[in-house]
Queue: 4 jobs
Job 1
Amino acid sequence: MDKLVQYAVDGHVARLTLDSPHNRNALSTTLVEQLHQGLRDAADDPAVRVVVLGHTGGTFCAGADLSQASGGDPFDVAADRARELSALLRAIVECPMPVIGAIDGHVRAGGFGLVGACDIAVAGPRSTFALTEAGIGVAPAIISLTLLPKLSPRAAARYYLTGEKFDASEAAAIGLVTVAADDVEATVASLVAELRNGSPQGLAASKALTTAAVLAGFDRDAERLSVESAQLFVSDEAREGMLAFLQKRPPAWVRPGNGGEAV
């Protein structure tokens, strides 16, 4: 099996590094499984106090791996992929130790969910962010489980709807990341030094206070959003949106109720 997530422990820090730059660290089933394993390994290691989630290449994470071969009913496949992402985001939120996101690259689609799931997120000068789902006929459904508790409501409405690109400074201003930093590694090292002072019990209990409402949202909404995400993904409009994106042309949307006239 290809190693798509590198795992290393340095003192009290477990580093999980997304290492699939050839497809922009897309969330393939293999990468997701290896992330789960890395989180389990960190939780089982009594020396580890902090997890740092980083990446290689110019993209932190571009979201789902749409190139994965899949069989079966398209709706069932899409729903299962949504559940897979939901389970990964929940695993990060439920991790008993703080998770720091170290981001210095592009973040798209499911990558936003990873950033939102981290307890602390540091973004560097090469970071760019854009929620482009509405432009291809879908919506940021599953990632809303970790994004909406962090983003200001006005910012969520703006960037969910417009799909416009923004930088690390704006990401910090709207609550998506904790800090925009010129030097991501130095800032992460400083945060790790502060967290190292916490006891395992104290860190876990303190984190649990900040994640209780997020986990309640998973309990309430994750399955519904998985179904809704799949319904959007297999719709005619989404197929047109994704095809237009691949063909680098404007999509020919059809407005419901107007006799199928393109808009």
Job 2
Amino acid sequence: MLLAYMLRLLVAGICGALIGYERKNRMKDAGIRTHFMVSVGAALMILVSKYGFQDQIGWANLSLDPSRIAAQVVSGVSFLGAGMIFLQRQTVKSLTTAAGIWATSGIGMAIGAGLYWVGVSVTVLILIAQVLLHGRFNWLEGPKTEQLTIKMEDQPGAVETLQRALTEKSIAILNFHAEKWLHKKEQQPMIELEMIVRLPSSLSSEQLMSLIQEMNEVKAVGVQ
């Protein structure tokens, strides 16, 4: 039986590592080691839940519920995934990675319970879905946000011209802050703009930069 248990842990670890490898290649926070440990750990907990109390089956007035550990694994891994989600530039990041961790724990539990083909099939399904959905399907792409810092000359109507140029390209301004200051070297009044914009799926960050730099008043533009 020990060899059977070790085989389950090994297969669970391989499946988790495969998903982690795909995440690592996309420069995500949770990579091979994280997914490997989550899958092996989940498989181990299921093995303990199913077989760890067999020596107590003959005890009088004893009631066992092998599913209780599985339920706790799901809840515990959910907290682990929640810790990976963060907010950046008004956009929630790492949701897919958190969901992958949660799914990986399910794979580990399935293999730990002896459902090899279920666990392996879900691993293959997740890998195929990640490859396909990360392809260049424009209809799948959502709006992107960028946080910009723009330094421009304080000319009459310059800010309004910039806002109009963005609006014409269907770029929404989510947040806007402007400060005036004096360029000490050139003694030129300047404006520093900080804004968060939402881009349509058809417009790239490079196109946004080119659009802003076309204005003669703009002296510098950066993306945070």
Job 3
Amino acid sequence: MIAEHWFWWLLCVACVAWYSTITVYVAVRGCFEIRKMLARLKEDQPADDTALR
């Protein structure tokens, strides 16, 4: 079956590889961005929580 439809099989594999690469890239970059954001929020937090009352 692959021998008959090699073009479509190759195109499908290329699309899955591209989608997987983009998904992993976005997940990794998002993880780093969330860590940076949480670190910034922690720095901006007051020393004690009496300012919240």
Job 4
Amino acid sequence: MNELITQINDAIWGYVLIAALIICGIWFTWKTRGVQFRMVGEMIRLLTDSATSGTDSLSDKDKNHKHISSFQAFAVSVATRVGTGNLAGVATAIAIGGPGAVFWMWVIALIGSATAFIESTLGQLYKQRHKDSFVGGPAYYIEKGLHCKWMAYLFAVLITITFGLSYNSIQSNTICGAMQKAFGWNPLIVGGILSVVALIIIFGGLHRIANVSAVLVPLMAIGYFILVVVIIIMNIQLIPHVMKVIFTSAFGLEQGVGGAIGATIMNGVKRGLFSNEAGEGSAPNVAATATVSHPVKQGLIQALGVFTDTLLVCSCTAFMILISGLYSTPELNGIALTQAALNSEIGAIGPTFIAIAILLFAFSSIIGNYYYGEANIRFMTSSNVVLTVYRLFSGGVLVMFGAMASLEIVWNLGDLCMALLTACNLVAIISLGKYAFRLLDDFLVSHLSDGAHAQLR
């Protein structure tokens, strides 16, 4: 079964999806005149918007609802991005595809951030009011924008399976593997504890998820980032060599670990997409919950999330692994490679630190992943029974499955689900992208000063 899934993944990724992602990213970059590069300053400024920013333009009924701030929406989306993809995913990409996979992760992030801008702007445009917050995402803009109900339901089913079920098994598998290597803990016991804690938070609702993510994400990302930056500075003399290895391997000029250039590109793009989710259709679900005065604001903030994830956190992990030189060790892969790399730099405390970091990274992803499924189940049905069953499977059954399953099976299932989900979303945003382009022009005219507008034009 695992071999069959691998063959299907290679066919989809090797011949269809990589080209589609790159072409879409280039198209959106061109049509927005490089919005992800020229408006970085505005992205950062928008993070300071309060939970009530822009509420003056809301109806009295909307003002009485709870509101998710721009920063909370950013934190929840980054919570799902910054996880196993940054520690285990990067290591897997390098181990299988070679150092050049890092270059292709950068490429998919740089052009994919424009795709992230489009999909999250559309998420805001087509959002609708729910009983305690706003809801939205690709299922909503497919139904309301494309008027294609069957495709909207297909997306809703795919994202529920991909994030709420498949991805949560990956997160659990990585946590349990890290804990077993660092402390010798039984994966079944760790999985059981994870399930209980996840279910407690999940049954608390969206606002508890937002509050937990707003605390965990900055702490875990900043702490990990500072540690690895220190390691890089301590080995600064090796950085020119590391960059040379990345670029020569990326174009097949140096065939070392990872084999052919096709494997390098495929693994770089797959792991890059798993990590930053640009074009996957996930971030628009939480982007739609934010209370902002213009849809473009969340588009910009979610584009910043792609940069934060791949260009900062993923690059830190990649540099640390390449500095250690352990990426060519056959028996090391996934989180074990990252732990071994840190162990070689700071000693025996390394695996312990990574175990704790992956616990925070991946656990925040579990609760964030769950919300994507919840939002789309609410799109399909109002049944509390269905939602309760989903909660039990997402936070309980699949977390335990990940604890027991092999690394290969959970990642292969995740890649297959990710491919189908992304293909569905790309069809939608290509068709609806013109509305995001118009909204960007409107934002430049109506929300920026004349001087800033002229400069960004």
